[in-house]
Amino acid sequence: MDSFNQLRMMVYASLFAALTAVGAFVAIPIGPVPIVLQNMFVFLAGLLLGSRWGLASVGVYLLAGACGLPVFAGGLGGIGRIVGPTGGYLVGYLPAVFLIGKIANRTPPRVLFDVLAMICGSIVLYACGIAWLKILTGMTVTKALAVGMFPFLIGDALKIAAAAAIAKALRPIIRVPGNQVQKTELNQVKTEKWTSSKSKI
Prior knowledge:
The chain is mainly α. The chain has one domain: Arp2/3 complex 21 kDa subunit ARPC3. 75% of the residues lie in helices and 2% in strands. It is built from 8 helices and 2 strands, in the order H-E-E-H-H-H-H-H-H-H. The chain has a two-stranded antiparallel sheet. It is globular, with a radius of gyration of 19 Å. 38% of the residues are buried. The mean pLDDT is 85.
């Protein structure tokens, strides 16, 4: 990757880290785990930036929060949020965005594949969040699921649908070197050139 693309991807990663922080301010408290838009921007980072830069984006976001900046849900920050009852969801953003980015990089740019990638990322995210919630609070698995997952499934479905539509619109603008989208476009260009040269013969 040349220096220009490197700089461009760093800007994109920083932008998505900022958007994730903004998403944290849109929070609906319904219990220990509020409904927020953070995960929608994390999903978008994986879809549009890929595994490496999506991971960098989430890493910047978590580092900013750990340093005390008010970027977590409810405008809070500090390492206490990461080691607290909802910390598993925050840490879970890392494997979730990485998995979404991996799937997005290896599959054609289709809404169906994007939705499947985000569902897989959500499963990983909930696994981390619920496990941590159970350990720190002493809840049973059933209680942890009732508090930390079931109330958010409908909201997550809506956020996944919105993220899929946004990703489809932004992909032609945000070009990640080496991903499946660029490979597909490159193959189309090669095919068009080959067809054009053949017709001239």
